[in-house]
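Researcher: Before we compare anything, I want clean individual predictions. No alignment, no superposition, just each chain on its own. First chain goes here; please echo the sequence and then give the structure tokens.
Model: Echoing the first chain and its structure:
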Amino acid sequence: MSDLRRIRVLLVDDDPIVCAGLELMLSSADDVQVVGRADDGDQALEAIRTHRPDVVLMDVRMQRQDGVTTTGQIKRLDNPPRVVVLTTFDADDVVVRAITAGADGFLLKTSSPTQILDAVRGVDGGQATLSPATVRAVFAHVASSDDPQRTAARTAVTRLTDREREVSVAVARGLSNAQIARELYASEATVKTHLASAQHKLGVTNRVSVAVVVTKAGLV
């Protein structure tokens, strides 16, 4: 196992008991390594510079700086790590704000160890992660919202090619790259190329944000 790449994880949470539990659970996996911890959102950027994580597990409610604000700061860094927001509550507005800030995933702290490990591995590999308990409600909220960004989203999707639009809609349906490739009779490499191009044209940085834009535009 010594040659196995280990996903470097940073924990950002002000509850030491939660951090201890997450570290114990994550460290049980051969391919995951907890490299550090920040006790509050205002310590996260310095911890990222110090520990160079691949993935950050981010709490929402912290005493000094909340996880949504911190996620936005992280995503403005050059080559930022992936961020999974991990919280005890699943209010739609919190999920939407986290995604808008650039979060690559959202899970409840009540998720099973397997779900949390799968989330870490998934976002490290470029896959979006949303709690099954919240995903339908979140996208229903986005689709029905009277958000002024809906007009901007409709304009943005006109920049996509037909294939980029098909890939983006498939992402919003929750399909993985492998599933999209099978559905469109294309290679996974081709799907990744179309998705990367779509992200650039839509002005977003991850799969979840692509899903939000095409949902706001009414394509899903």
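Researcher: Okay. Second chain, same rules.
Model: Second chain and its structure:
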Amino acid sequence: MNFNDIFKSNFIEKVSSFSPLDMVIALAVSFALGLFIFYVYKKTFNGVMYSASFGVSLLAMTLITTLIILAVTSNVILSLGMVGALSIVRFRSAIKEPMDIAFLFWSISAGIVTGAGLIPLGVFGSLFIGVVMVLFVNKKTTDNPYILVVNCTDEKAEKLVNSAISDNVKKHMIKSKAVTTSGIELTVEVRLKDSTTEFVNRISDIGGVTNTVLVSYNGEYMS
């Protein structure tokens, strides 16, 4: 054993064997992909309440995943330890929007692919996914179903309501009918003509109708 062997360090050898250029390139590409995912999320969001912090977390998740994959691919032993360490992590945040899950997996996948050095796959794959998201998520349809709830006092009012619904909507289907001592409650799924809800006012003016509510499937009250 000589003087050099005493001060020999595996940690220093690992630092010298790692390429700073690869790290800079991978993190830069990962940052660009994370920004792109953040922009697509902001562009396609159509939920109830937009969360800017979730969009930033998508960017951070892409960078963090890239950093982990860079460490894993540089050392096989480290990769085994990393798998064990990540297996104890538990995420308990509730996902409110189904599309948020797709964006989370997109961020993780982009980070994994970029960290593995497959930069063309990460770039072109993210561009393709982004185009699909923008085209299909933002696609509006005028044939959205709505739920119409009508309270009638008697059968005569019920017949007039059914006749008014048939004449003013494109398509309808009775979902439920509740008969009580105070009256009749109808729950009807309707598809509107030309996205107009004027017929709801006409139904409300029918004699024997005590209450009329039109609700979209996302919980928004239309009348």
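Researcher: What stands out in the second chain?
Model: Confidence is low (pLDDT under 50) at residues 219-223. Additionally, The first strand starts at residue 145 and ends at 152.
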